[in-house]
């Protein structure tokens, strides 16, 4: 799958901002969770390609981030 196909496959309404995002910018991501993949993009630069991961890989990443933060 190429970048353009990934972007088109995810409707704009599916994206949501990280709960840690603020209105003042900073390090913000948006996530779109689909049945077969989780798509992650930079909320400040939507022209860049989105990163795609399997739901299991995304869950492992988030779990690891939570452990590292505590």
Polypeptide structure, described:
The chain has 70 residues and is an alpha+beta fold. The chain has one domain (3-64). 31% of the residues lie in helices and 21% in strands. It is built from two helices and four strands, in the order H-E-E-E-E-H. Strand 3 and strand 4 form a beta hairpin. The longest helix has 15 residues, at 55-69. The N and C termini lie far apart (36 Å).
Sum up the structure in keywords.
70 residues; disordered N terminus; DUF397 domain-containing protein; DUF397
Poorly predicted regions are 1-5
Approximately what portion of the residues adopt beta-strand conformation?
15-25%
- Tally of DSSP β-strands: 4
First-to-last CA distance = 36 Å
Strand order of the largest sheet: 1-2-3-4
> Biggest sheet, in brief?
4 strands, antiparallel
> What is the 3D form?
flat
The gyration radius over C-alpha positions equals: 13 Å
Please bin the fraction of helical residues.
25-40%
Tally of distinct domains: 1
- The chain-level mean pLDDT equals 81
- The helix-strand sequence is HEEEEH
So how many helices?
2
Q: Class by helix and strand content? A: alpha+beta
Domain DUF397: 14-64
InterPro entries: DUF397
Pfam families: DUF397
Protein name: DUF397 domain-containing protein
Task: Annotate the secondary structure layout.
Blueprint: H1 3-9, E1 16-17, E2 29-33, E3 38-42, E4 51-53, H2 55-69
Antiparallel strand pairs: 1-2, 2-3, 3-4
Task: Give the gist of this structure.
A hairpin with a 4-residue loop joins strand 2 and strand 3.
